[in-house]
Amino acid sequence: MATIEHISCLQPLVDTFGRVHSNLRVSVTDRCNIRCFYCMPAENVHFKPRHELLSFEEIERFVRVAAQLGVDKIRLTGGEPLVRHGLPDLVRKLAQVPGIRDIAMTTNGILLAEQAQALKDAGLGRLNISLDTLEPDTFFRISRREGLAQVLEGIFAAQRVGFRKIRLNAVAIRGITEPEIVPLGQFARRHGLEMRFIEFMPLDAEANWDDQQVITGEQIRATLTEGIGPLNPLPVEDPSQPATDYEFADGLGRIGFINPVSQPFCHHCNRLRLTAEGQVRNCLFSIEEWDARRLLRGGASDEDLTALIRASIGAKKAGHGINSDQFVKPDRAMYQIGG
């Protein structure tokens, strides 16, 4: 018979608003090989020293504890996760954790071509690849580095090695990416990829975000409808999914819209986050963190880690409040949190 402690450990992660948390985003590094202005400063970036980052063994232990609490989906993020040496080894470890049924990764794709096969073999199931533009000049304007050719090579390599669930993520920014919307939609249709457009969020390191720069999901949908063709809404497969999905009326191509600014989806959020240096966050926009690294390196028990995770979820707010007068921008930028 299970002990009382064991039964308690198996209770799901439910916050005070009744949201059950089963999705963990794990940042493996704050480093990146490009400098997208909506995520990082252009120069003089101060990265965490390697010894402050969680080891693969520490990440695996945290995931094992989280899996006992009902977490069954993992997304690896950064920074750029593929700059972390030996990432397929971590994927392999996590794929063997009981209860974990889905492992995905968000990447800028620059190093993907050389690692795609190893990641697939290790057990990575899904990929989200950032692609804001198909124009080299615009790519450089956004990322402040070269690399578009490598990103495209990475996308096609991922298809060749057998990844079937590939999404392309494009951040929509007024004054820069309006001309990219239709070409990106056409590119995704042509290559059998799912396109997702994401509203520009106030998580840029240089604090230049302004709501006037936001192209809303509705505006993007109107542009695609005019430039390509009608879009029909698709049934919601998972109430916690961040995207509202559509399919072109001719059946060629699926488009998702992630609208955290114009249409917040906090009421169905099922996500928690672990930063690269081991801080637990209950929201992308949280201004509070819980120090799992201290426990992992201090001889704490799994019950102690469980209590920390539950404390984080218990403190989760109803929403991020971007559009409210009470909104407080996090001190950390996207690359420091994990997308």
Helical segment tally?
11
- The overall strand count is 14
CATH homology superfamily: Aldolase class I
**What is the name of the CATH topology?**
TIM Barrel
Question: How large a portion of the residues is in β-strands, by DSSP E?
Answer: 15-25%
Order of helices and strands: HEEEHEHEHEHHEHEHEEEEEEHHH
Instruction: Return the CATH architecture.
Output: Alpha-Beta Barrel
Can you tell me the CATH class? Alpha Beta
Share of helical residues: 25-40%
Principal-axis shape: globular
Give the total of domains: 1
Strand order of the largest sheet: 9-10-11-8-7-6-5-4-3-12-13-14
> What value does the Rg take, in angstroms?
20 Å
Average pLDDT figure:
92
Distance between the termini: 41 Å
The helix-and-strand class reads: alpha/beta
Stretches with pLDDT under 50, minimum 5 residues: 1-9
Largest sheet: 12 strands, mixed
Secondary structure: elements and pairs:
Blueprint: H1 4-9, E1 13-14, E2 20-21, E3 23-27, H2 56-68, E4 73-77, H3 87-95, E5 102-107, H4 112-122, E6 126-130, H5 136-143, H6 148-160, E7 165-172, H7 181-191, E8 194-199, H8 217-227, E9 231-233, E10 243-248, E11 254-258, E12 271-274, E13 279-281, E14 290-291, H9 292-296, H10 302-314, H11 334-337
Parallel strand pairs: 3-4, 3-12, 4-5, 5-6, 6-7, 7-8, 8-11
Antiparallel strand pairs: 1-2, 9-10, 10-11, 12-13, 13-14
Helix pairs in contact: 2-3, 3-4, 4-6
